[in-house]
Structures are given as structure tokens and as C-alpha cells.
Amino acid sequence: MFNLQKWIRPHIWELKPYASARDEYEGTEGIFLDANENPFCSKDIPRFNRYPDPYQRELKQQIAQIKNIDASKVFLGNGSDEVIDLLMRLSCAPLKDEVLIMPPTYGMYRVCADINQINVLEAPLTEDFALQTDLVLRTFTAHTKICFVCSPNNPTGNVLEASEIHRIIQSFDGVVIVDEAYIDFARQESFVKYLHSYPNLVVIQTLSKAWGMAGLRLGMCFASEEIIRLLNKIKPPYNVNQATQEIALESLTKTAEKEEQVQQILSLREKLKHDLKQISEVEMVYPSDANFLLVKMAHAEKVYQYLIQQKVIVRSRANVQLTKDCLRISVGTAEENEQLLTALNTYVHHKSALV
Ligand SMILES: *Cc1c(COP(=O)(O)O)cnc(C)c1O
After folding, report:
1. Best label site of 30, 210, 299, 323, fewest CB within 10 Å?
2. Helix 334-354, helix 300-309: angle, nearest 10
3. What pLDDT does 1 receive?
4. What CA–CA distance (Å, rounded) separates 156 from 104?
5. Considering the chain, what is the average pLDDT of its residues?
6. Is residue 245 in contact with ligand 1, taking CB distance under 6 Å?
7. How far, in Å, CA of 104 to CA of 320, rounded?
8. Strands 292-297, 326-330: pairing kind
9. Residue 333 burial (10 A CB sphere; 0-12, 13-18, 19+)
10. 206: CA distance to ligand 1 center in Å?
11. pTM here?
């Protein structure tokens, strides 16, 4: 049912991509006088006088091994945000095509669509943040190219029902992007293992959350070889820089350390959840499969402002559809969480004097 050529914007199918020096000659041996690089490099910071591998081959091999997938099904971007943008520009004609989102969800989907003048259709989650598959399927039109499924979802923290995600992938003739930024914290399995069954599935992950490398900017995209080839066609030639490639290679060897941190964050999350529930202002702490908690509170906006005064910065989702009166709180270290709780308790005990 999924027709890749129909999904892609026609001019991109025809596009002759930019050929970098490293595309024209792929070997590693020889004297390189082809890219106008400086032949001298700093003794302290070697290699950076040369352009990086445009296809990040070594890094992709390593990621492919960790994810148990062929390297030809991996695309890397300058953060997942670049991957989201490239997928939209690959398929959606401005002022004509559409993407579907399920609010409340990650804000970048809409912003990226707005920048590219792509219409956004909405099929909101239920009050309990569950996916409404029938509504999603009814909302698709002939111009809908992408359906964003964020699981675990930001800012609600919950995973969406896997069988419902399957139903959408199976019934949609566009591409379903399953955004798994928080998958390492979740009890649910990644959709990467279904790539071989669905040509219209794209999974995105990131080094920014569980891997603790938000500053590096490395987004990972897993999809069919054909979709990866098209992404390569339109990406900026050197979109993942040399420093990121090197440090990512090194950090990805530290799987045990990452796993340990994930376990630590999960237990800190459970303690934080328990402690937050003791605070009278807190009406509800939503179930979380991520490294943050969505917390419903009386006077959320005032609490948010008070916390800022106390130099504790959380995210207010108080004015967002379906998360009214909610704050989104990342799980910090034990000390950071204590400071948050102290500030909240101070607010509760002194609020009559404060407001
Ligand atoms: C944090 C986050 C990302 C990661 O974005 P990067 O650009 O890779 O840092 C992607 N999707 C969601 C839902 C997120 O919350």
C-alpha cells in the first residue's frame, strides 16, 4: 500500500544532489588536495583540519551493532530535530501536504511544519493520554504524508499502546515516525525490530537523553534503505561534525555506564514521584515511562514562578491543551530533587504570605 515514489516530492526524486570532494573520491589513501583544506593541523587538536566522513560510516557501524540492524538502515543527524526537518522536506510540499500530530506532544513537530508551511492535522490523545486510533485514521486525508507517534510521549511521559501503533502503520499510506527519544527509560520495546515488516516505518532516537550527550547533537534515524538513501540525497553534506563523530564513538562503548545511569534515574524518579505525592498542592503525578514527571498542581503557574525565584527551573505546561495546571519536571540528582521538594514545601507553607 505504501508507495515511496508517491510519498516523495517529485522534484526530490529527480534531484541531482551535491557531490562533495569526499563523494567523488571515497578512498582513504593518498595525498588529499581536493577539498581546499588547510594541510597543516594543530598538534594538540589533530584531524580537525580535514572534513569529516559525510556518511559517518564508522559511527553507523557501531550504532547498527548496538541496535542489531544493518548499517544501510541508519541515518544520523545534527540532533533528531534535523532528522524531523529532513523527513518533512523530503515528503511534504508547502501549502499542500500535511502532517498529523497527537497533542499534547513534542513542540518541534508543529514548529518544523510551520517553518516549512506544512499543514498540521491534530488527533488529540484522550484525557488519560491514550492514542485514539480511530480518530487518527479518520483524520488522515489524501495529502497526509507523515504521522508523528511520540512514545514515550513528551510531555505526558507515557508510552502509547503498541498494538494501536501497529494498527496505524498498517492502515496509513504515508510514513509513521515513531519518536523514541525516551525509549531507554521505558518498559516498552523499540519499534526498530519491526522495520523489516513495514516500509513506511521510521524510528528516531537520540543521544540527548539516556546516553547523556545532549550537547553533542546526535540524532539517529532507522528506516528502509530506500528512505535512508533519499535522506542522504538532501542532507547538508557534513551535517554531523568530526568532534561529534569521535566522541559519540567513544561514548557508545560505555553501554554499562549508560545502563547504570538509566537504572539510577528510574529509581530517583520513583522516589521523586512518591515525595511529590506527599505535597498538598500536588493533585496528580502521571505515570511515566521517561526521565521526567508530569505533575498536576493547584496554581501551577504560580508554583512555576515561585520555583524560578528559588532558582529551580521546571517546564510549565500549564497553558497547553490537556495538560492544564501541569508542570513537567525532569528527574535530577538526589540533591537536585531534594532542593525542588524543599522549594515546593516552602511554597505550600508560606503561600498565604506569598500570594
Ligand atoms: C528531547 C527530544 C528529542 C531529542 O531531540 P535532539 O534534537 O536529538 O536533542 C526528540 N524527540 C522528543 C520527543 C524529545 O523530547
Report:
1. 30
2. 110
3. 87
4. 7
5. 96
6. no
7. 7
8. antiparallel
9. exposed
10. 7
11. 0.96
